[in-house]
Amino acid sequence: MSEKMSGKKKKYTREKLEKAVDEVKAGASLRATAKKYNIPHTTLQDYKKKKKYSHNPHPNSAPTPSEEEALISFMFWMADHGFPLTRSLVKVLAMGIIKESGRSQSTTVNMEKGPRDVWWARFKARHPELSSRTADSLDRARVHGGTPEAIEGFFKLYEALYVRHRLEDKPHLVYNCDETGFGDKP
């Protein structure tokens, strides 16, 4: 785990930090342990005293785990249907969830600006199944083109061509191909 903090990268893992805290609580020298594990002694001291860095989220800070799961499900559903969500839209949806839950008065989230980028980074860290990509316009076109009406219209056109060129008894003259190798923009 190497996160950026104040322009410097951490050189220790969560496991090393927990091990160092346990050693200090057992009576080891704080500075010696900090040096041994390459952890700033102030960080180790703060964790030892539990003054800072409490990793239990504030109960009203953001969507609850069940609300996050619903949001993830919606995100995947939208992506499967050709409409992947942007980071800013996910943040707007998260804010809407907070408002709908009735926690908007007691939340730590700025209800005018929405969740911060830190929330987004932690949200993605909690859900590694998410990934950021550029949306493919062809996928969206396929979703819209895959309606029953569009498919029925295609086969009506195909049937008319088939009959006009008298191919009913000549299946060996009918070939199949797809769009591979063809650009979708002139």
Offer a few descriptive terms:
186 residues, mainly alpha, Arc Repressor Mutant, subunit A, 3 domains, two-stranded antiparallel ribbon, 8 helices, disordered N terminus, DNA binding, Homeodomain-like_sf, HTH CENPB-type domain-containing protein, DNA-binding
Characterise this structure:
With 186 residues, this protein is mainly α. The chain has three domains: 46 residues, Arc Repressor Mutant, subunit A; 62 residues, no CATH class; 37 residues, no CATH class. The protein contains eight helices and two strands; from the N terminus they run ββαααααααα. A two-stranded antiparallel ribbon has the order 1-2. It starts with a strand and ends in a 22-residue tail after the last helix. The relative contact order is 0.06. The N terminus is likely disordered.
Please summarize what this structure is.
With 186 residues, the protein is mainly α. Helices cover 52% and strands 2% of the residues. It has a two-stranded antiparallel sheet with strand order 1-2.
* Portion in strands: under 5%
Distance between the termini: 46 Å
What average pLDDT do the residues reach? Answer: 78
What is the topology, as strand order, of the major beta sheet?
Answer: 1-2
Low-confidence stretches: 1-7, 51-60
Number of strands: 2
Main sheet attributes: strand count, strand direction, barrel closure? 2 strands, antiparallel
What integer value in Å does the Rg equal? 28 Å
Overall shape: elongated
Number of individual domains? 3
Q: Class by helix and strand content?
A: mainly alpha
The secondary-structure element order is EEHHHHHHHH
- Individual helix count: 8
Measured as a percent range, the helix fraction is 40-55%
Domain HTH CENPB-type: 55-133
DNA-binding region: 30-50
Keywords: DNA-binding, Nucleus
Subcellular location: Nucleus
